């Protein structure tokens, strides 16, 4: 599947609400949780994250979603549940929306992220410390939208994912070099970005 097959968002058949999960226990503890073995069953939303989602729903200002699709990590599943409940939807799991895997840095302090981002800026293909390459993240994230574009039309689909994957996807959609994904404005917990028709 080509990463360039989608065309401009203005030509898409659906709209997408790209949503980062709410503030999580991993954020609270300052720890990297990128492995499904740890992130699917543990490290859900923090109390602050729960409050963020309640506020986000109460102050909803985006198109009404018709589908909610999420990473299977606990923090994204709980975020998706808030949105789905608010609009009477049943959320569905999409493992390609998972967190970027940070390899040997798993379980370490989140102060290790900048060292990886510095390497990203030099080479979007790097896998130092067994970290998932930026290019690989872009490919799987893009493929999710590509699949929806081929199977649905006129939908507003909330895609609930994680900071790095969403930053990388938005960089790809903007036609920028993937190595520049950290030059974008940082997506805050519970943030929503509307793209598409």
Describe this entry's structure for a reader:
By secondary structure, the chain is of the alpha/beta class. The chain has helices at residues 25-29, 36-39, 47-58, 74-86, 113-122, 134-151, 163-173, and strands at residues 15-20, 67-70, 92-93, 156-161, 192-196. Helix 3 (47-58) runs parallel beside helix 4 and helix 6 (134-151) packs across helix 7. The two termini are 22 Å apart.
Keywords for this entry:
37% helix; 197 residues; disordered N terminus; 5-stranded mixed sheet; alpha/beta
Number of helices: 7
Structural class by helix and strand composition: alpha/beta
Q: What is the radius of gyration computed over CA atoms, rounded to a whole number of angstroms?
A: 16 Å
Q: What is the residue-mean pLDDT, rounded to a whole number?
A: 94
How much helicity do the residues have? 25-40%
The portion of residues forming beta strands comes to 5-15%
H/E series: EHHHEHEHHEHE
The main β sheet shows up as: 5 strands, mixed
Task: Explain the layout of strands and helices.
Elements: E1 15-20, H1 25-29, H2 36-39, H3 47-58, E2 67-70, H4 74-86, E3 92-93, H5 113-122, H6 134-151, E4 156-161, H7 163-173, E5 192-196
Parallel strand pairs: 1-4, 2-3, 2-4
Antiparallel strand pairs: 1-5
Helix pairs in contact: 3-4, 6-7
Structure summary:
The protein has helices spanning 25-29, 36-39, 47-58, 74-86, 113-122, 134-151, 163-173, and strands at residues 15-20, 67-70, 92-93, 156-161, 192-196. With 197 residues, it is α/β, with parallel strands linked by helices. Helix 6 (134-151) packs across helix 7.
């Amino acid at each position: 599947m080509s990463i360039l097959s989608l065309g401009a968002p203005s030509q898409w058949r659906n709209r997408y609400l790209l949503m980062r999960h709410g503030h999580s226990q991993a954020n609270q503890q300052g720890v990297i949780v990128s492995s499904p073995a740890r992130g699917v069953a543990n490290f859900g939303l923090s109390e602050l994250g729960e409050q963020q989602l309640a506020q986000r729903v109460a102050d909803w200002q985006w198109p009404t979603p018709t589908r909610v699709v999420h990473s299977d990590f606990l923090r994204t599943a709980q975020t998706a549940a808030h949105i789905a409940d608010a609009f009477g939807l049943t959320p569905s799991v999409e493992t390609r929306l998972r967190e970027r895997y940070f390899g040997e840095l798993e379980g370490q302090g989140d102060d290790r992220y900048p060292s990886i981002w510095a390497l990203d800026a030099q080479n979007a293909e790097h896998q130092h410390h067994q970290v998932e390459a930026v290019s690989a993240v872009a490919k799987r994230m893009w493929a999710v939208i590509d699949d929806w574009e081929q199977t649905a039309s006129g939908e507003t689909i909330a895609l609930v994912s994680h900071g790095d994957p969403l930053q990388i996807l938005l960089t790809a959609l903007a036609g920028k070099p993937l190595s520049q994904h950290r030059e974008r404005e940082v997506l805050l917990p519970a943030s929503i970005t509307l793209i598409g028709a």
